[in-house]
Amino acid sequence: MIHSKLAENKLPDFTELTLDEPEGITFKKKEEFTRTLFGRTHVVVISDTDYKQVMQKLPPVQTEENFGYLVPDWSNQTVPAMDSLEVKLGMELDRSNKDRLRNGKVDGIITSRASNYVNLKQVTSIMIFIGLFITVIFSVFTASFLYFKLFNDLQQDQRYYHSLSKMGLGEKEMKRTATIQIALLFYIPLVFAALQTLIGLSSFTSMFHFTNSMMMVSFIAIGVFIILQTIYFLVVRSRFLAQLKRVMV
């Protein structure tokens, strides 16, 4: 495996790869994988013969060896359980690696998918908590702002609908017009926020294999927020219409 930091993409479709170091070695692409579980890793897989040819020309400082071990009892079909032996061993290896690095031993480390998964899950949990906390704050702020906006302009709207009622505007038409007015105020920012979130996530999740699960969680979160916003919309609408009905002729 050769890290593609040493490589230069010569063709837009990445069908041919030429190494800057060493010079004069070109490979033809047979298959390309652009995503991994934990982010992008640019790796070229070549035959043993080609590998030996490249290694003969690379300085030792630019090479490293990676060994992979497959444990039959550790299933590749599901993520490891938090109380499993795989996770316990992986976290122990992670602590051992940190101790070795603190002691200046950088000759090699041992990692497992379990420790990577646990670390990613911890970081994700913290990010989710921070995101939810910020979301709650902005949701309360938005709700307060919308409520203040509507009822701050209530007297002006009452005069407006009172004048229209004198011209023949019925209660049914008043409710429909006022509902559209409130709905635009509530849902236009929500639609733009949802679109911006999905566009940002589509760029972010392109780096990972679990794109579908992340997008599903995003859709669920947006759906929950829409439901809460709709409940608040119905409450505000009922109170707003009750105030307008008082001035109808």
TrEMBL record:
Species assigned in the record: Thermoactinomyces mirandus
Matches recorded under PANTHER family: ABC TRANSPORTER PERMEASE PROTEIN, ABC TRANSPORTER PERMEASE-RELATED-RELATED
Keywords of the record: Membrane, Transmembrane, Transmembrane helix
Keyword Transmembrane applies: yes
Ranges that cross the membrane: 126-148, 182-204, 216-236
InterPro entries to which the protein is assigned, alphabetical: ABC-4_Integral_Memb_Prot
Stated name of the protein: ABC transporter permease protein
